[in-house]
Amino acid sequence: MPEAAYIVLAAVCVLMIKHTAADFFLQTPYQYCNKGIYGHPGGLLHAGIHVALTPLVYLVIAPASLLLAAAIAAGEFAVHYHVDWAKEGVTKGNGLTPQTPGFWHALGVDQLLHGLTYLAIVGLLVWAAS
């Protein structure tokens, strides 16, 4: 396998670990109970934690320029915040709970969109490094 493939796989792995830490270990009730309220500091804090941890991927792929790093941070913040907010709106607005299939469908789409965001980030970093 080419070295570039290993770097891309390692970068995706770092972002998946980062996502797990931010969504499942660092997320507090203050964050997850308020993500459905647009503009609430809890949701903003949650998205900010994700953005703060994303530069870990620069340890695997060459550091981004300041402009690209800022663009990635802004894009990730906007996407992560709005995906979480929309998922909360769908689940709460439809009375979905972990006991209903729709809750898990919404959570699955939420996680898929976050994963696709990470693929886009890695793609941008690889493009910028080449």
Describe this structure in words.
This protein has 130 residues and is mainly α. Helix 1 packs across helix 5, helix 3 crosses helix 4 and helix 4 runs antiparallel to helix 5. It is elongated, with a radius of gyration of 16 Å.
Summarize the structure in short:
The chain is mostly helical and 130 residues long.
Determine the mean pLDDT. 95
Please state the structural category: mainly alpha
Task: Tell me the number of strands.
Answer: 0
Shape by Cα distribution: elongated
Largest sheet entry? none
Task: Measure the end-to-end span.
Answer: 18 Å
Relevant terms:
130 residues; mainly alpha
Explain the layout of strands and helices.
Layout lengths: L2 H23 L3 H4 L8 H13 L12 H28 L7 H29 L1
Helix pairs in contact: 1-3, 1-5, 3-4, 4-5
